[in-house]
Known about the structure:
42% of the residues lie in helices and 26% in strands. Helix 3 packs across helix 4 (81-89). The chain has a six-stranded mixed sheet with strand order 2-1-3-8-7-6, with helices on both faces. By secondary structure, the chain is of the alpha/beta class. Strand 13 (278-282), helix 12 and strand 14 (303-308) form a beta-alpha-beta unit. The chain has helices spanning 14-17, 25-35, 50-63, 81-89, 97-109, 116-119, 157-175, 193-199, 201-205, 233-251, 263-273, 288-294, 312-319, 323-329, 334-348, 395-416, and strands spanning 5-12, 38-46, 66-70, 93-95, 123-125, 129-131, 140-145, 148-153, 180-189, 211-218, 221-230, 255-258, 278-282, 303-308, 352-358, 373-379, 384-390. It has three domains: 5-175, Molybdenum Cofactor Biosythetic Enzyme, Chain A (3-Layer(aba) Sandwich); 180-258, Alpha-Beta Plaits, CATH 3.30.70; 264-416, CinA-like (Maf protein, Alpha-Beta Complex), CATH 3.90.950. It contains 16 helices and 17 strands. Residues 8-175 form the MoaB/Mog domain. Belongs to the CinA family. It holds the Pfam family CinA. It comes from Fibrisoma limi BUZ 3.
Amino acid sequence: MTNIIRAEVVTIGDEILFGQITDTNTQWISTELTNIGIRTVRKSSVGDQAEAILAVLHEAHQRADVIILTGGLGPTKDDITKKTLCDYFGVGLVRNEEALALVTSFFEKRGRPMTDLNRGQADLPANAVYIQNDWGTAPGMWFEHGGRVYVSLPGVPFEMKNLMTHRILPRLQGHFSTPVIKHKIIRTVGIGESFLAERIADWEDNLPPHIRLAYLPSFGQVKLRLTATGQDTAQIDRELAEQVDKVMPLIQQHVFGFDDDELEVVVGRLLKDRSQTLGIAESCTGGFVSAQITKVPGSSAYFWGSVVSYSNSVKISQLGVKPETLEQFGAVSEETIRQMAEGVRKTLGTDVGIATSGIAGPDGGTPDKPVGTIWIACATEQRTVTRLLRLGKYRDQNIQLTSTYLLNLLREELLNQ
Length: 417
């Protein structure tokens, strides 16, 4: 039976609870802990109140082997983490001369005066193991109490990440006999979570006990995350690969990549490998698809440009959409989207043209064409393929879903060539 080491990550600061800053620390810490075989079982955020911090520490002690805190170590009065830790452990503050020397050197090198508040950063709980911070003035602290390890780190991401990487993670690996925890992610598109689960139900039911499956849905996509636990890295890798081989025949048509692959990266890779160029005509997505494509470094090798044809006049003048097509069928129609995709391909002189036109919402729908009615198309030298999407009433969601479905249509057409 593999011994699982469990961790809880606690962020401290009113600014997090007020939504004034985005907490990126817990995500990064959890990823790094997983990489060394420690599983995060809970994440908590508390404000700068001693009672709240004490409560979460007592709770974390009951469910975790490692408790990692970030924030509240600055020199001002609202930074109360050290004093609260003293209350929790029943100790007082003691000045650490090594920490004081580092803080003094920090200010001397910058030609800045040091105040008593700055010197106070060298005062640590008496039971703390001092963890040197070469990237700032607030030291890290390591505690061992009641069979648990507590780590307190600055909340500034740059300082926290360096302390974790160079000081804490190696120390945790030396302290615990950690198992191997490995993830393998299969990325799917164009199939809903429930349909996917039904299709792979028998395979999922027969997974070995030490391999767990999670469904992670997003806009038009579902990630299947396999998490395996064991003692032998090579064996875990082999077992994950075997499970991927078993499930792939069931979902092959919907799989576009693995692990960190993004749909726009995969599409870009296909275009580049085939030495093909891309032009985009966007109406309802307003440039969002183009932004996804150009997020990818090196996209200039295959992406030539786009036309955001929000008005019918631009569809006519720049894309060659016939006025009679718009008059007879409207901007949101199969006939128009076909001419948009073929038109942008001709206008920009690219191998492939893709297009969007629809009613993103929240207004503009009709009984025949309600909000969420979207047409997409992909035109190549061989053919033009169109698809009708019937989405919901939320504008941002419709734009993101349309982008996903259009990029997937492009992917399928490139693979079919």
